[in-house]
């Protein structure tokens, strides 16, 4: 029961930011949404304790966009860049457009230069556009569960990107399995 698990870990009187999952997403028991709420609470607890700026977020593999949706709901002034596979972007875009119809958006085909990346509140890039992200601009980098679905060379590419685009004072937050067996190149390889 994701609701029981969430309430056990985040009782309403124990945290600085109270996330109302049911108000935001409706009366659903989708574990992905409740996982996003858990990550949001954990992330913001760390951000507040370290005093990290909450101005620019960069999320790799947002999936349905539930985590970015909570970030934008409770940190309305932030700008978020979301990087995903082209076929996955519609899921997070639709969720975020529904939640924030008056926010400013850029889709991958609209981003021409690094200047465009910070001109809107929510910017979507494909995994082939990461070179357009300027150096040292993001305070917080995120990845939740999608590294466990990637080949090692793709993960290494994203780590190089995070090292290039995160500010000197930053937080990189990841929530992934320790190991997953992946089938590729005609064999099974552990992703760690």
Please give the order of strands in the largest beta sheet: 3-4-2-1-5-6
What is the distance, rounded to the nearest whole angstrom, between the alpha carbons of the first and last residues? 28 Å
- Tally of alpha and pi helices: 7
In terms of DSSP E residues, the strand content is: 15-25%
Low-confidence stretches at least 5 residues in length (pLDDT < 50)? Answer: none
Overall SS class: alpha/beta
Main sheet record: 6 strands, parallel
Kindly report the average pLDDT value.
89
Radius of gyration: 17 Å
Helix content: 25-40%
Order of helical and strand elements: HHHEHEHEHEEHEEE
Give a quick precis of the structure:
The chain is α/β, with parallel strands linked by helices.
Q: Could you please describe the fold and organization of this structure?
A:
With 192 residues, the chain is an alpha/beta fold. The protein has 7 helices and 8 strands. The strands form 2 sheets. A 6-stranded parallel beta sheet has the order 3-4-2-1-5-6, with helices on both faces. It has a two-stranded antiparallel sheet with strand order 7-8. Strand 1 (56-60), helix 4 (66-74) and strand 2 (79-84) form a beta-alpha-beta unit. It is globular. The relative contact order is 0.14. The model has no long low-confidence stretch (mean pLDDT 89).
């Amino acid at each position: 029961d994701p609701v029981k698990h969430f309430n056990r870990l985040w009782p309403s009187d124990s945290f600085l930011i109270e996330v109302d999952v049911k108000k935001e997403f409706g009366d659903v028991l989708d574990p992905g949404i409740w996982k996003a709420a858990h990550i949001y609470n954990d992330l913001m607890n760390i951000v507040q304790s370290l005093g990290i700026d909450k101005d620019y977020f960069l999320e790799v593999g947002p999936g349905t966009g539930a985590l970015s949706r909570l970030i934008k709901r409770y940190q309305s002034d932030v700008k978020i860049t979301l990087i995903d596979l082209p076929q996955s972007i519609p899921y997070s875009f639709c969720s975020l457009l529904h939640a924030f119809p008056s926010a400013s958006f850029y889709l991958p085909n609209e981003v021409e230069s690094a200047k465009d990346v910070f001109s809107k509140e929510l910017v979507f890039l494909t995994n082939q556009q990461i070179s357009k992200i300027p150096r040292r601009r993001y305070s917080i980098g995120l990845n939740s569960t999608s590294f466990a679905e990637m080949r090692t060379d793709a993960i290494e590419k994203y780590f190089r990107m995070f090292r290039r685009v995160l500010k000197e004072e930053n937080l990189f937050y990841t929530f992934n399995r320790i190991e997953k067996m992946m089938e590729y190149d005609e064999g099974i390889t552990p992703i760690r």
